[in-house]
């Protein structure tokens, strides 16, 4: 039995977040950059949401999913960045257990929602390009409601067991989380009890979201490419592929850091410094939501033109 173990210590009342391990004293300028990116990302996503909601030509299913992604990109970083800035600036790393579990749930569930929205957008592009004459009849308001409900319910069902399973763990005297927020694996690694179930379920949750969605997105774009290269006109090919360009960029931005974090936490944990793990996790939360409105704002003609006309006026 580990030294300092207390059998009644099922869940400590508070944890201590330390930010980026090894860089506690040198994160001032990094925190300024993170804060600036966060503020700009909130402004950018709010601008995208406002433009879609006020522009009558942007009322299709694709833009509905884009507005949903913009809202998610505002809420997700807002669940951790204020606390993160408190750690970096004021050393306010103490967080009570319920808030820690809530943060864990919201961060992971918003990531699952993002993945679900990107998958729905890939399906939208597939129907629009492969079955253009049936697009309006397929993407009805009823289907949109069902897709949104499925995305949200799936995220809750898959992610809710994660904090609930953390509740069953027992902890020793160490309650210092080597992270900027209550990451699932960072909290689980503090436990004195058997964590195999938590580790296995974490992998299952990743497979049920990221791998499944990437497979569906890949199939959608494989069929899109097959259909596009049947077109005789080069201009028609470029136009069809152009409608998918921004979506593909967002997919790369969203999935690459997440895949790196998930794989290295379980495979390369002893080979890659903890500070690198935490830094990439922070970058994933902050930078991806900053790049999304930039990508869609620059590569989507209607949003780009409305942005220019609004700011010029």
Description:
This protein is mostly helical. The chain has a single domain (14-312), classed as Rhodopsin 7-helix transmembrane proteins (Rhopdopsin 7-helix transmembrane proteins, Up-down Bundle), CATH 1.20.1070.10. It is built from 12 helices and 3 strands, in the order E-H-H-H-E-H-H-H-H-E-H-H-H-H-H. A 3-stranded mixed sheet has the order 2-1-3. Helix 2 packs antiparallel against helix 11 and helix 4 (97-130) runs antiparallel to helix 10. The longest helix has 34 residues, at 97-130. The chain is globular and about 65 Å long. The model is unreliable at 1-8 (pLDDT under 50). Its main location: membrane. It comes from Leptobrachium leishanense (Leishan spiny toad). Odorant receptor.
Low-pLDDT runs: 1-8
CATH class designation: Mainly Alpha
- Biggest sheet: strand arrangement: 2-1-3
Number of helices: 12
Report strand %.
Answer: under 5%
Structurally, how many domains make up the residues?
A: 1
Order of helices and strands: EHHHEHHHHEHHHHH
Spell out the CATH superfamily: Rhodopsin 7-helix transmembrane proteins
Attribute tags:
GPCR_Rhodpsn; mainly alpha; Rhopdopsin 7-helix transmembrane proteins; three-stranded mixed sheet; 12 helices; disordered N terminus; cell membrane; 313 residues; transmembrane
Helix and strand arrangement:
Blueprint: E1 14-17, H1 28-54, H2 61-78, H3 81-90, E2 94-96, H4 97-130, H5 135-138, H6 141-159, H7 161-167, E3 176-177, H8 184-188, H9 196-228, H10 234-266, H11 274-299, H12 301-312
Parallel strand pairs: 1-3
Antiparallel strand pairs: 1-2
Helix pairs in contact: 1-2, 1-3, 1-11, 2-4, 2-11, 4-6, 4-7, 4-9, 4-10, 9-10, 10-11, 11-12
């Amino acid at each position: 039995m580990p030294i300092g173990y207390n059998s009644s210590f099922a869940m400590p009342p508070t944890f201590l977040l330390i930010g980026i391990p090894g860089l506690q004293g040198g994160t001032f300028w990094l925190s300024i950059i993170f804060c600036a990116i966060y503020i700009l990302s909130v402004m950018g996503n709010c601008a995208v949401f406002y433009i879609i909601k006020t522009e009558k030509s942007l009322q299709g299913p694709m833009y509905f999913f884009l507005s949903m992604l913009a809202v998610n990109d505002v809420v997700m970083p807002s669940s951790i960045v204020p606390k993160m800035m408190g750690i970096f600036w004021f050393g306010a790393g103490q967080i009570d257990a319920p808030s820690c579990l809530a943060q864990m749930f919201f961060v992971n569930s918003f990531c699952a929602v993002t993945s679900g929205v990107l998958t729905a957008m890939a399906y939208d592009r597939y129907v629009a390009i492969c079955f253009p004459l049936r697009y309006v009849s397929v993407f009805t308001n009823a289907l949109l409601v069902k897709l949104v409900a499925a995305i949200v319910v799936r995220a809750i069902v898959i992610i809710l067991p994660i904090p609930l399973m953390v509740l069953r763990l027992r902890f020793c005297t160490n309650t210092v989380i080597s992270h900027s927020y209550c990451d699932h694996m960072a909290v689980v690694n503090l436990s004195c009890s058997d964590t195999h179930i938590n580790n296995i379920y974490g992998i299952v949750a990743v497979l049920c979201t990221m791998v499944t969605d990437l497979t569906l997105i890949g199939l959608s774009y494989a069929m899109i490419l097959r259909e596009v290269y049947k077109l005789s006109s080069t201009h028609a090919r470029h136009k069809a592929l152009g409608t998918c360009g921004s979506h593909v960029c967002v997919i790369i931005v969203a999935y690459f850091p997440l895949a790196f974090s998930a794989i290295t936490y379980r495979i390369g944990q002893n080979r890659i410094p903890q500070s690198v793990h935490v830094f990439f996790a922070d970058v994933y939360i902050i930078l991806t939501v900053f790049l999304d409105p930039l990508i869609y704002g620059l590569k989507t003609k209607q949003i780009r033109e409305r942005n220019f006309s609004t700011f010029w006026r």
